[in-house]
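Data card: per-record layout.
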Amino acid sequence: MRTLGLEAAALQCMLERATALYPQEACGLLVGRAGRVEQALTCLNRATDRRVGYLIDPEDYLHIEQQVANAGRQVVGAWHSHPHGDAVPSETDRQLAWPDWHYLILGFRGRLPSQCRAWILNESAFEEEIIQP
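The structure for this 133-residue chain is written out next.
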């Protein structure tokens, strides 16, 4: 199983945003370098129904992509919350996923996030990654 490094501050950013937007899905981009998430950035969710889906705002994506490229880093994936379920990718998540990107999903129990799991698309299926500090 592959591993993914995750800075504590990045996890904290995701937890705070997901909690604040409950019961809607929160989302954003993951910034770092090969196999390591150094920063989680929040984005506007442009999905039609934000309670059950996410769509990262295209303008947010372009702005972040340019900003991190200028700093010598890269967007390495995306994150989002599942405010009504587990941190497991849905079929919609799989259909919209990009190869070689890391996907962090926050699952909820009640009104609070209870788990964070990492996934990467391997051909047509998600493979779970082990999160390390």
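Known properties of this structure: The mean pLDDT is 95. Residues 31 and 87 are 20 Å apart (CA to CA).

See the next section for split statistics.
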